[in-house]
Design goal:
Layout (H helix, E strand, L loop, with lengths): L1 E5 L7 H12 L7 E8 L4 H17 L5 E8 L6 H12 L4 E5 L2 H14 L3 E3 L6 H4 L5 E3 L4 H13 L7 E5 L3 H16 L4 E5 L13
């Protein structure tokens, strides 16, 4: 039996930011001080802020003639807060790039600001396939989309010597619901027999491993 658990997950920012800092510096002005924005939801704040701070501190210790400053904004609040915070980073904090650790719903709002201002934006969390569907040239997503994950899962199943029952576990989070919808649709299109279970609705507690 195959069980695929789809849920919101937190990606570790450190290797992503370390690889991007040299590129980000190329978007800066003549100033030696480079401001980088961090947009994050409250639930992802701890891990994302710690990793981003570690990357910035490491870059500053290397004494390469540039000084990086991290400008953080939390996206919690009424609908539209994500875009408001992104605008603040661009026009009030004068960041030259924005890193996002949020679900697809909030990342979409921030992406619209990137599209208008042409400030580069990197998402390290959401697997929502619609994010890259807007084809904004300066928006980048480090996470595999749920569509790509569905294709990988189908290849995994096809490689098995016998057909197995497929169960998709999901919770009520935005990322989980989006991934579950994409995965179940793709599996059914391929003629697979699947069972969907929302464990939040039936009160099941389960570990947060991501597949």
């Amino acid at each position: 039996m195959h069980i695929f658990k789809v849920s919101g997950y937190s990606r570790f920012f450190l290797p992503v930011i370390l690889s991007l800092l040299p590129i980000i510096s190329g978007f800066s002005s003549a100033s030696d001080t480079i401001r980088i924005g961090l947009l994050v939801t409250e639930s992802k704040l701890g891990a994302a802020e710690k990793a981003a701070s570690m990357a910035v501190n490491k870059a500053n210790r290397e004494k390469n003639g540039l000084f990086f400053i991290l400008e953080k904004k939390v996206m919690e609040g009424p609908w539209g807060t994500g875009s408001v915070k992104a605008v603040d980073l661009v026009f009030n904090d004068n960041v030259c790039a924005i890193l996002v650790s949020a679900d697809g719903r909030n990342t979409h709002l921030a992406e619209m600001v990137s599209a208008k201002t042409r400030v580069p934006m990197v998402s390290a969390l959401s697997g929502d396939p619609a994010l890259t569907g807007a084809f904004v040239p300066w928006f980048f997503n480090c996470a595999f989309s749920s569509s790509a994950q569905s294709e990988a899962a189908l290849k995994l199943i096809a490689a098995q010597p016998y057909e197995k029952k497929i169960i998709i576990l999901s919770d009520d989070g935005y990322e989980s619901r989006t991934a579950s919808k994409n995965m179940s649709s793709r599996f059914r299109l391929a003629g697979k027999d699947i069972t969907e279970i929302n464990y939040d609705n039936i009160g099941i507690k389960i570990g947060r491993a991501h597949v």
